Structure prediction request, 246 residues.
Amino acid sequence: MTAAPPPVIILVQPQLGQNIGKAARAMLNFGLTEMRLVAPRDGWPNPDSGPAASGADIVLERAQVFSSVAEAIADCSQVFASTVRKRDVMTPVVGPVEMASAIHASPARSAILFGPERSGLATEDVVQASHIVTVPINPVFGSLNLAQAVILLAYEWSRSASLVQPTAFELEPRAPQAELDGLIGQLEGHLDAVGYFHPPERTQATRNTIRTILTKPGWSSRELKAMRGMLRAIAQPRVRSNTSNS
Prediction:
């Protein structure tokens, strides 16, 4: 199954170059690179956007400018308008989780609209969207700046986007069962040699507990080899020769 394309971030009539740059930084943090600007107030490019982007230059360099929302979303099959609920609009309302699920489920291009810093999206912009997406926020103080809004929704999308790079540990395959049995057998042999299994009637229960403990970690072959080496070193310590200086 082909992965759904990342959503396009569309800033409608953004007012400050700094805010555009901060939005670009927020986007790139979560793997988004396609920004579209609708009638930016101070034109484009804007010299104030670069420093605020803090290295997210690829987003700014690729940014496209459109004269209207209709033009900016023309190639998008589903559009999410980031705004509060509007009583005069019949557009379906979803939360960030539902939005992210819908984007990942669609093979077509999706977009998320963000309005001007002071006023937010106008009704005529919202009605062009397929959904309103609204963030649960304190009703007494619902004040998010542009970059914060972008961060919240970009993060929610990224949670299912496989952006996290696996560590070397996570890439190591689990060792075959035979190798784990070798470690267990070696440990049990050393324990038996020192009389650990006592009383005799509890021996099998104790062995079962040992197997359960050692099975849980999901060892790799490298880790099992290291553990077996440590057991050998403990069971057969090297004799250090004491030499005196003549």
In short: The chain has a mean pLDDT of 88. The first helix runs from residue 17 to 29. The chain has two domains: 8-158, 168-235.
